Amino acid sequence: MGSASKQSNPTGKQPKPGSKSAQQADRRARIAELRAVEQRRERRNKILTIGISSALVLAMIGGGTWLALDAKDKNDKKAAAAKVAADAAQKAKDDAAKADIPGLQTFGKLTQNHVKTDVKYPQTPPVGGDHDPVWQTCMSNVYDKPVRNENAVHSLEHGAVWVTYNGKATPEDIKTLGDKVKATPYTLMSPYPDEQGTITLTAWSNQLVVDSASDPRVETFLAKFVQGPQTLEQGASCSSGQM
């Protein structure tokens, strides 16, 4: 404050208390003190802001890292569960492929030419042989009317299982079979009034006749022959065929 007084009073004489010069000196001193206080406050706020920002950044980094690790852990668990399920399904399919099915009829090697004419088949329903160039759509399709033999046989060539039934099948049987087919790609189902057995399951060169949809051999047949070892054209489409 003495310095400020000297600047405004070059003579070095102290201003008289209450004089205008003294009042100006006091005012300058208060302003300087207020500026110093404000500067200290600004420095303190800046330090607090930097500290809070740093803490937030660290929290965000930590939170993001935790979320990433948590997501990875969930994905790893999901992948592991999917692999276990896939391995179990493959084992069941392998076991079914090796299983003997009582009553299964196998017909050996059959011709597989594409023809435009009707074909007279020795089996009813047919289990293979020459067939139409267009397959019957067989991606879990349930038909309420008979389908053409020649188109269905082409589906068998692609590894499909054809489920048929006659008038002896009960509504419960038809519903149960339909539900199974709807849940199983590379299958199709249709009525077949002329077949002798109540329910017939047909794959290329293989056929099984059962009396009820609850017969456990139905599941075994589906597991064994849907895209099974008898498939002549592995990976061939069952979509976009004859409807």
Provide an overview of this structure.
The chain has about 240 residues and is of the alpha/beta class. The chain has 2 domains: about 1-95; about 105-225, Glutaredoxin, CATH 3.40.30. Helices cover about 50% and strands about 10% of the residues. It has helices spanning about 1-10, 20-100, 150-155, 170-180, 215-225; strands spanning about 105, 140, 160-165, 185-190, 200-205, 205-210. Strands 1-6-5-3-4-2 form a 6-stranded mixed beta sheet, sandwiched between helices. Helix 2 (about 20-100) packs across helix 5 (about 215-225). Mean pLDDT is about 85; it is low at about 1-10.
Quickly describe the structure.
This is DUF3105 domain-containing protein. This protein is an alpha/beta fold and 243 residues long.
Determine the structural class based on helices, strands and strand pairing: alpha/beta
Number of E-type strands: 6
State the helix count.
5
The succession of helices and strands, N to C, reads: HHEEHEHEEEH
Separation of the first and last Cα atoms: 103 Å
**CATH architecture annotation name of the largest domain:** 3-Layer(aba) Sandwich
Helix content: 40-55%
Question: From the alpha-carbon coordinates, what is the Rg to the nearest angstrom?
Answer: 44 Å
| Relative strand content | 5-15%
Average pLDDT, to the nearest integer? 84
Write the layout of secondary structure elements.
Elements: H1 2-8, H2 20-98, E1 105-106, E2 139-142, H3 149-157, E3 161-165, H4 171-182, E4 187-191, E5 199-203, E6 206-210, H5 216-225
Parallel strand pairs: 2-4, 3-4
Antiparallel strand pairs: 1-6, 3-5, 5-6
Keywords: Membrane, Transmembrane, Transmembrane helix
Transmembrane segments: 47-69
Protein name: DUF3105 domain-containing protein
